[in-house]
Amino acid sequence: MNIVHQKMIDAIIQKAGKVCPDSLALIGLYGSVATGDIHEKSDLDLLILINDDHGWQLADAFLLDDAEIGYDLYCTSWAMLEEDACCNHAHLSKLLNATLIYVKDPEAIARLAELQSKARALLASDARHEKAQNAFANAKKMFADCFLTNDLAQIRISAGAVICFLLDSVMLHHGCYFQKGVKRTFEEIALLDLAFDMPAQCMAVIQSKSAETIRAALSNLMRSVQDCLIQPKEKAIPSSEMLSGTYEEMFSNWRNKMQEAAEQNDLFSSFMNMVSFQFMHQELAETLLIEQQNIMECFDPHSTVSNAQAFDKAINKHLEEYKKAGIHPKHFANVDAFVSHYQRD
Fold first, then answer.
1. Residue 70 CB: number of other CB atoms within 10 A?
2. How many helices (H) and strands (E) are present in the chain, helices listed first?
3. Confidence at residue 1, expressed as pLDDT on a 0 to 100 scale
4. Fewer beta carbons below 10 Å: N end or C end of the chain?
């Protein structure tokens, strides 16, 4: 840390003593100066941790003409640091790597350590996979934006957001976070030993010259990251407790509606009923060892009758899962028989 940086830090401490003596908790150093990845035009990354809103007076942004360097003295509140500790992104060096160079409030050290422990524990736990999936979900939203406009500039902006979220996603999935600057991003990604060349796929997006090629390159990147995030799940053998009622629910929700759609040649209803069945089946198949079905492969846009037949075939296959689990669908001759049984239970 050079004399210019030291003078800035001293100025922050002195100003805090004058205008907000109880606001400054501590100051930490992170970024290129802390990691040694410094060059002659490096700025200064400081964790200026403040206790209250009065502390925002310590923030400033300015240029030094003699050095031709811009600086941003940015304050961080406890709420912001607590949000970082939730690991919703992978840029956690400010929280986890800051070297303390000034402490005004000794109790802040313990509080900071608790947040660091929380973040490290989360990154080491299975909860990190949910965080990675959330980042991927955000990438999908921005990915969709690339198809909702033909403005090349806006597509590039959305593509940049997609890349950022995907980088966060793979880092969090592996329980890691970015510890260095943007220029070292690909070096840190390389340490993950991914099954695909993420830097190359990111660059394919960046080097694309048209909306079509950006979208195509992004699609490849999205698929690669999605495959990377897949977590094998242990599936349970279906039991009566887990499976009972599902066949009856499927029959109630869609069987007669499929028949009605066939009779009235209502293609929209036919399609939506099959989609709903597919969603329910996939949800069950994610946790239970049942035969995978893809009813939408059988969807016929020209024949609602064929769709009704495909549905009957699919729901009968689900009935076979009932038999394997020793379950019998609930049948009653009439409503009186049901009421008698229902009230007896």
1. 11
2. 16, 6
3. 62
4. C
Which tokens in the block code for residue 106?
């000794």
The predicted-structure confidence for 1-29, as pLDDT tens digits, reads as follows 689 999 999 999 999 999 999 999 999 99
Where in the chain does DSSP place strands (E)? 24-30, 45-50, 60-64, 69-73, 75-77, 99-103
Domain 3-124 has CATH 3.30.460.10: yes
Residues in CB range of 261: below 8 A, 6 or more apart: 267, 269, 270, 273, 304, 307, 308
Residue 19 Cα distances to 58, 102, 138, 247, angstroms? 9, 18, 40, 69
* Beta-carbon contacts of residue 291 (< 8 Å; ≥ 6 apart): 317, 320, 321
* CB count in 10 Å sphere of residue 133: 16
| Residues of the chain predicted below pLDDT 70 | 1, 34-40, 345
Q: In this predicted structure, what is the pLDDT of residue 36?
A: 66
53, 62 contact by CB (below 8 A): no
Cα separation of the two ends of the chain? 77
Contact criterion met (CB below 8 Å) for 276 and 254? yes
CATH of 127-229, one of 3.40.50, 1.10.390, 1.20.120, 1.10.260: 1.20.120
- How would you label 292-325 residue by residue, b for 16+ Cβ within 10 Å and e otherwise? ebebeeebeeeebbebbebbeebbeebeebbeeb
Write down the pLDDT at residue 44: 84
Task: Give this prediction's pTM.
Answer: 0.86
